[in-house]
Amino acid sequence: MAWFKIIGTFFGLMALLKPIVFHLFPWDENAFLQKAYSEQRPVWAFPVAIIGVALVGWTWVMECITRHPRTIFITIIFSLTVIKALLLLVRYESFQKWVQNMTRRNKGRSVFIMDIGIGVLGLAVLAWTFFML
Fold first, then answer.
1. For the segment 30-43, what is each residue's pLDDT rounded down to a tens digit?
2. Is 0.70 surpassed by the pTM of this model?
């Protein structure tokens, strides 16, 4: 159960604070995303993706071991991050083009709208972690 509180708190805080840091402080998120996901796969992409897949795998192992009925929400939400990890590993070029198009379209408004959703999701994960687990 402690594992789910740890990843729920970490994941929720990251998702909640990311939009705040990128939009309230003087920071150009679009330029950062374009630089972070350059045309050539960055060296950090492979190890980060492998660690992400391993953490999701370990979360499923813990889900099967603990069998607590209220941890499945955290497990499923955390498992959705594996989609990005797999795209970084297998189809980086298409992921990079999607990021570049998203940052250029509507002057990055798509990024802002997505960040609002990420912040709300982070708040929901934190609430679930603190009040339901």
1. 777 777 778 888 88
2. yes
